[in-house]
């Protein structure tokens, strides 16, 4: 059949009378167009039903790729430095153990007070009082404050302070005031707040 004849049939075709049941009698160009339309719709439906969800999943995975690469590089760097980190941790744990040994336990606080008194006596100071305050509980340690008041000349007081700072247990000195005692000005009174600290073990896992 010629192309001109086919075009004539299309022009003469009454589109309102087309019946899908009689598609075999349609002009071949209309049949071809209908087949292409059906194929196109079929492919579009398959893409929407199958390919679109897969594409969304692919985009989601690609979005996670950068984060996964960063995590991998971070963990690879940590693994490469694992031995160094273990050595540093061992050093820190050793240092922490040494510092804990410098903290007196609650039972050792009276002994520490005796050591401070002996340091004052060794430097020929008069002790007015060494008086404990109530302890204060912190997150990782217990703070034990106490007031100290002694009398003596400037050089002996300085030696006393150096002796307290050099005790094997940790003692920190605060709020120091130095005032003359008597009329000569040679004798001074030292008043200060001192603090020592006891290590407080973690309570995790304790019922």
Automatic annotation (TrEMBL):
This is Type IV pilus assembly protein PilO. It comes from the Bacteria. Coiled coil: none annotated. One of its GO terms (biological process) is type IV pilus assembly.
């Amino acid at each position: 059949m010629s192309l001109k004849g086919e075009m004539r049939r299309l022009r003469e075709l009454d589109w309102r009378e087309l019946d899908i049941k009689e598609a075999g009698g349609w002009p071949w160009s209309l049949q071809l167009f209908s087949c292409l339309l059906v194929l196109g719709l079929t492919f579009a439906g398959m893409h929407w039903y199958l390919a679109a969800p897969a594409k969304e999943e692919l985009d989601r995975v690609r979005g996670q790729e950068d984060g996964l690469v960063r995590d991998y590089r971070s963990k690879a760097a940590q693994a490469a430095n694992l031995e160094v980190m273990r050595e540093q941790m061992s050093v820190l744990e050793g240092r922490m153990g040494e510092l804990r040994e410098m903290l007196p336990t609650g039972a050792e606080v009276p002994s520490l007070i005796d050591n401070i008194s002996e340091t004052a006596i060794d430097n020929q100071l008069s002790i007015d009082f060494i008086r404990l305050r109530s302890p204060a509980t912190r997150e990782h340690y217990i703070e034990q404050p106490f007031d100290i008041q002694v009398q003596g000349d400037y050089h002996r007081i300085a030696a006393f302070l150096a002796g307290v700072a050099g005790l094997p247990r940790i003692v920190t000195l605060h709020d120091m005031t130095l005032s003359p005692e008597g009329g000569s000005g040679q004798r001074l009174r030292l008043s200060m707040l001192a603090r020592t600290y006891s290590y407080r073990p973690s309570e995790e896992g304790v019922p």
